[in-house]
Amino acid sequence: MQSMNVQPQVFPVGGGQFFNQHQMNEPQGNLGNNNPHIFSPQVNQARLLAQQHPVSGEVPGLHLMNNGQDMTGNYILKQKMENVQGQQQGQQQFNVNANVGQNMPPGLNVYQQGAPGLVRPLNSQMPKQMGVTANTPVQANAMMHTMLPPPNQLFIREVWKGNLHSEFSLLRRMIQQYNQVSISTEFVGTLARPIGNFRSKTDYHYQTMRSNVDLLNPIQIGISISDINGKKPENGPSTWQFNFSFDITNEMVSGESLELLRKSGINFETHKSNGIEIFEFAQLMMDSGLILDKSITWITFHAAYDFGFLIHLLMNDVMPNNMKDFEWWVNKFIPNFYDVNLIYKVITDFKQQMQSQQQQQQQPQLTLMSLSDELGFPRFPLFTTTGGQSLLTLLVFSQLRNLSMHKLPNGADFTTYKNLMYGINSE
User: What is the pLDDT of residues 66-104, one digit of tens each?
Assistant: First the structure.
């Protein structure tokens, strides 16, 4: 789970070389040394708030779980509680003649700058260890690409049942040019745990995911698009947050996770009255051009749950009983994808091999937010929404690829880890 006290594990960039070319032939770290982070990256840091304000009593109509049923560490909720501004983000029009501060998406205007605009001096855009003079072409290239996209490309389009068809129509027109797609999913948390004997640790992880995907419905799905170089559309939206119909009186949800979701900005009344029907979304997704196409590359941070919910919707059936069948369905609908969580794990394992034993005592946090911290991205509140998580995943992946020149520090190419899901088939 994501801790409130996140200590970024800094990549040795700049003087230390983010990807040391002399270490290309070193052996790769063992992916199985640590227990995989088998959950979605949207881990809610507000659990600390819940400890300060415990939920008392029961909410009528809810299927509450007993507090003793191992709910600690099982909420796959989003990191939304740092200066969260609710999810009522208006679909603002971007005025090119106005001051940039007036055009900022909700959640960006809390970031104080010395001058209008998001284009800060290069050294302020860099991670701390990169704020040095670029002595090599690689360093210069890294500095050039750490700048955030312009504010109009950071807007998140809210999608409800009223504008669902029009937004999918826009997506269909754009997907051939902007064929890199990231996804993030919000749901109530991991409520079910399988019991019995399992073939392997990865089989247990899959059965846990399968049980929860079959039992639960997603609350939101975020989708963000760019081209293969990370460039986003100049005009119009490039990130969407799809809000699904969700009635808490009919869904399986714990009282604690419900409270945390409300505090993070989820308006369940609006989801009940204006939310998108799951099967209507699935039908439009089948006709969107995003799936069943080898020219589309999907990006996710911890693919298991993101793809689990998506495949479950597209199949319109229960999840496959075994991991191999699930992989077959994923490869059918999503022929090309990268799991950034797996790439982050490979980099972290290699770093630990290069460090002394004393420095390896504390295991790093393998979360999207910790990775974005290491790469120098600011913690805008919009990055804690479901749509914002998909946007941040895309930005982080493009940044990693630019810094590494498509090579990981263990000498392997990015494509070595293509179509592998962290915790499912990556060991």
Answer: 444 444 344 344 444 444 444 444 444 444 344 444 445
* pLDDT class of 117 with cuts at 50, 70, 90: very low
Dist CA 35 CA 41 (whole Å): 15
Question: What is the average pLDDT across 294-309?
Answer: 96
Residue 90 inside a domain? The answer is no
Cα radius of gyration (the chain):
21
Q: Which long-range contacts (CB under 8 A, 24 or more apart) does 199-207 make?
A: 201/32, 201/35, 201/36, 201/427, 202/36, 202/323, 202/423, 202/424, 202/425, 202/427, 203/322, 203/323, 205/36, 205/38, 205/304, 205/423, 205/424, 206/304, 206/322, 206/323, 206/326, 206/424
User: Where residue 284 sits, what CATH number does that domain have?
Assistant: 3.30.420.10
The answer to whether residue 26 is domain-embedded is yes
On whether residue 370 sits in a domain, the answer given is yes
pTM beyond 0.90: no
The CB-side HSE value for 206 (13 A sphere, CA atoms) comes to: 20
Q: Report helix, strand or coil for 180.
A: strand
Which range marks the domain in which residue 206 is found? 14-83+150-417
